[in-house]
Amino acid sequence: MPSRPTAILIGGLTAGILSIIPFIAFYNIFFGIWIVLGGLVAVFTYKRDAKEAVSLGQGAFLGFCAGIVGWLVVLAAILFTSGAILSVTLGLFIGIAISSVITLLVGIISLVAFITCATLGGILGAYMWGKENLKEEYHLDTNYVGKEKNTIEPVTKKGGRTK
Residue 155 pairs with which residues in a beta bridge? Predict the structure, then answer.
């Protein structure tokens, strides 16, 4: 029996930890690469335990939840490291109130970004590792080579076509 919470936790921790490491967090500028990776890791972990194909809906759900977990990891890191430093540094109640509003807005925007990128990562992971079900579910036919073989007319050794 696959464990969704375990897969979500592993994917979310992957996204969150990679997003707070100073030198590599920079790469999140490029399409939220670590957050997308967190969604992919969640689907991969679930697929590995499930031994069955993952649908697009399951992948989106796993990515969505992994995005929330990743955002909570980043939020915890920010609050526990910069919250105390910020309040000591500013020292003014007005400054703290203004910075709290800005922090809230940045938090909401980053939550939306984490959820969006991780959900896309989950959908991408479901597409990559759930191909058996996707072909049946969406009636996809990827056997293009086989179709071409059947439509080509055979040629005789002398160069004429057979009838």
Answer: 161
Residue 139 maps to a domain:
no
Phi-psi region of 66 (alpha: psi -120 to 50; beta: other; left: phi over 0): alpha
Beta-bridge partner residues of 161 = 155
Express each pLDDT in 10-65 by its tens digit: 999 999 888 888 787 777 777 788 889 999 999 999 988 887 778 888 899 999 99
* Cα 43 to Cα 55: distance, rounded to the nearest angstrom: 10
Tokens of 7: 């897969």
Residue 44 belongs to domain spanning: 4-130
Question: Measured in whole angstroms, how far is the alpha carbon of residue 98 from the centre of its chain?
Answer: 33
> Distances in Å between the alpha carbon of 102 and those of 5, 68, 93?
32, 20, 14
Digit-coded pLDDT (tens) for 54-66: 888 889 999 999 9
Give how many domains the chain has, as a whole number.
Answer: 1
Per-residue pLDDT tens digits for 79-130: 777 655 545 444 544 555 566 777 778 888 888 988 898 999 999 988 887 7
- C-beta separation of 64 from 115 below 8 A: yes
pTM summary value: 0.68
